[in-house]
Specification:
The protein is an all-alpha fold and 99 residues long. Helix 1 packs antiparallel against helix 2 and helix 2 runs antiparallel to helix 3. The longest helix is centred in the middle third of the chain and has 30 residues. The model has no long low-confidence stretch (mean pLDDT 84).
Length: 99
C-alpha cells in the first residue's frame, strides 16, 4: 500500500492516529514523494537534453552540462528522501496546569 493511501486512510478514518503512527505516515509520505520527484526529474532530463545528430559540439556540451545538473538535483532529492531523519512529535506533558 502506498504512503498516499495510508495517509488518506489515516485522515478519513474514525480512529485518530497516535503521534508515533502519524510521524511514521508522514515520513513514509516524504520518502515516497522524494523518490517520485527524483524519477520525474530523471525522465525530464533524459527527454529534454538527449543529444541529436544535428547538434554541434557546443550544443552537445551544453546539453551534457544541463543533464548533469538536473541529475545531481534528482540524486539530491533521492538522498534527502532516504535520509534517516524522522519527523517526531515531542511528548506531551500529562500533568499540565490550567492556571
Amino acid at each position: 500500500m502506498s504512503a498516499y493511501v495510508r495517509a488518506f486512510q489515516a485522515l478519513t478514518s474514525v480512529r485518530a492516529l497516535r503521534p508515533d503512527e502519524a510521524a511514521q505516515v508522514l515520513a513514509d509520505l516524504r520518502k515516497e514523494y522524494g523518490v517520485e520527484l527524483a524519477d520525474a526529474l530523471g525522465k525530464h532530463a533524459t527527454e529534454q537534453y538527449e543529444p541529436k545528430p544535428s547538434d554541434t559540439r557546443a550544443e552537445d556540451r551544453r546539453k551534457r552540462r544541463a543533464y548533469g545538473a538536473v541529475m545531481r538535483a534528482a540524486n539530491l532529492a533521492r538522498q534527502i528522501a532516504a535520509s534517516p531523519f524522522q519527523s517526531t512529535i515531542p511528548p506531551q506533558s500529562t500533568n499540565r496546569s490550567t492556571s
